[in-house]
Amino acid sequence: MTILVAGATGNAGAQVVHELLALGQRVRAITRNAATARLPAGVEVVEADLTRPETIPFEGVTAAHLLASAGDDYAELLTGPDLLRRAEKAGVRRITLVWNGYRSPMEEAVTAGPLEWTVLRPGDFMSNSLAWAESVRREGVVREPFAYARSALVHEGDIGAVAAAVLVRGGHGGRTYALTGPEALSVPEQVATISAAIGREIRYVEQSEAEARDEMLRAGRPAEFADVLLGWKRDMPAEGYTVVPSVEEVLGRPARSFASWAREHADAFR
């Protein structure tokens, strides 16, 4: 069967593509810029945009991996009802949806719709730590606010593996899965783990919230996104730091640790 993957060039979406290929599936990847997409051989790449449902090629697709938000500004999608009508008409039977941090209009449309759905609610991605790579290489320093905040980080590969298993094998209709790693870590603990992986000391410097916000704005992040992200970290909800066994329940193996992620990506920090 052909499975459609939205956000196929993102950290998690690329892993969904990888895992589907490993399961022997045909993959149709959609991206807003096909010219810059770097996807494996054999993947059908189509230029399309979730904010324009008429561009989404659902024809011949039996399952689809969708997102609750899209675009560089991570704006919530308001096109869910139209997307789902088009998917149903084309014969799509099963959908996975990755949330955007709260119950969004897209999630409401999917869970109220006619198709077999599974909502995936990953916490912080381990791959977000790659944002520190340049400062670690240049200065041996990580600057982040909220040293006290702990997060049950999830390996992006586990997100991809769960999504692929659900899309291919089914059996998870009507379920919402929080996805976490096996432990909740503070930023200083994450820094120490990366330090151990590269065999070099890394200093943690706690930023103020204002400093962190200014840095995100300078990097081109929208102000609204920066405020939401900082608010999440400042007052972390229980679901952000509570470890759950969903990855193991779906895949039959434990979730991967941050230490294993750090070893896999050690060269990025050297």
UniProtKB/TrEMBL annotation:
<dbReference type="InterPro" id="IPR051604">
    <property type="entry name" value="Ergot_Alk_Oxidoreductase"/>
</dbReference>
<feature type="domain" description="NmrA-like">
    <location>
        <begin position="2"/>
        <end position="95"/>
    </location>
</feature>
<dbReference type="InterPro" id="IPR036291">
    <property type="entry name" value="NAD(P)-bd_dom_sf"/>
</dbReference>
<dbReference type="Pfam" id="PF05368">
    <property type="entry name" value="NmrA"/>
</dbReference>
<protein>
    <submittedName>
        <fullName>Uncharacterized conserved protein YbjT, contains NAD(P)-binding and DUF2867 domains</fullName>
    </submittedName>
</protein>
<dbReference type="InterPro" id="IPR008030">
    <property type="entry name" value="NmrA-like"/>
</dbReference>
